Amino acid sequence: FAIDPERIKFDRIIGEGQFGDVFCGTFQSKDSQNLEVAVKTCKDTGTTKDKFLDEAYSMTRFNHSNIVRLIGIHTGQPVFIVMELAKYGEMRSYLQKFDDQISENALVRFAIQLCSSLEYLDSQRFVHRDIAARNCLVFEHDLMKLADFGLSRLIDDETFYYKSTQLKLPIKWMAPESINFRKFSSASDVWMYGICVWEIMSRGLKPFQSVKNSDVARIIENGERLPKPADCPPSMYQIMLECWSYDPAQRPTFSEVLTKLKYATVC
């Protein structure tokens, strides 16, 4: 996946990542085709560079139609990752921009595609840890792909692991065991998936928008959950509630969720 920087032309900035700016650019392939791409850059070196490249090395393992494809990596200066470019950008802004044009069936289709990508990651023994609409990219009106693997981790012999570093974490999307004990697993990804589906079905609203991060755990402990989005099919909301079971062992697997989704109907 090593890439020649001479084959990349940086155009405009389209976003800001955790480690640096994200550019829209042009990549000249080996057969002289010019491809529009997304280029994630890293401003710093040392340990920051290593953490930045962790995402790229994770992506080299993946091959799925609903996961953003890695095109190349440049580890020299400047350090950057090249990926396929999403025509419509991140999910949340897409939902807000095209709100009136998106059917409930299209929203369910996005939820199915996201679940399919996560079922695949689970089969590869990866936990994503940052499943949110901001990390879902829309390529076509009927196609989304999961991105941002900066927090993903491979689970080797155990079914979970504990996080000890001090990276900024997406508290409002996290399962209670992740908030309280920094414990992450496929089951905690299922909880986050439920939150992301809520974002999709609510057409881009943010979860727990008026709640402080420090209060989220207490609200969940009290049994409160996000309300059913307006016009959301009851079958979809029921899936979300199952994903938000307090006990990780009571949550469905991604394979089970995928089966349920395929039978979910729009009322």
From TrEMBL:
Reaction equations catalysed: L-tyrosyl-[protein] + ATP = O-phospho-L-tyrosyl-[protein] + ADP + H(+)
Membrane topology: Single-pass membrane protein
Single GO MF annotation: ATP binding
Keywords carried by this UniProt record: ATP-binding, Kinase, Nucleotide-binding, Phosphoprotein, Transferase, Tyrosine-protein kinase
A single cellular component GO annotation: plasma membrane
Main location: membrane
GO biological-process terms attached to the record: signal transduction
SMART domains noted in UniProt: TyrKc
Entry-linked PROSITE patterns: PROTEIN_KINASE_ATP, PROTEIN_KINASE_DOM, PROTEIN_KINASE_TYR
SUPFAM superfamilies: Protein kinase-like (PK-like) (SSF56112)
Pfam families, alphabetized: PK_Tyr_Ser-Thr
Residue ranges of domain Protein kinase in the record: 8-266
Localization (cell): Membrane
Positions contributing to ATP binding: K40
InterPro entries, alphabetized: Kinase-like_dom_sf (IPR011009), Prot_kinase_dom (IPR000719), Protein_kinase_ATP_BS (IPR017441), RTK (IPR050122), Ser-Thr/Tyr_kinase_cat_dom (IPR001245), Tyr_kinase_AS (IPR008266), Tyr_kinase_cat_dom (IPR020635)
Protein's UniProt name: Protein kinase domain-containing protein
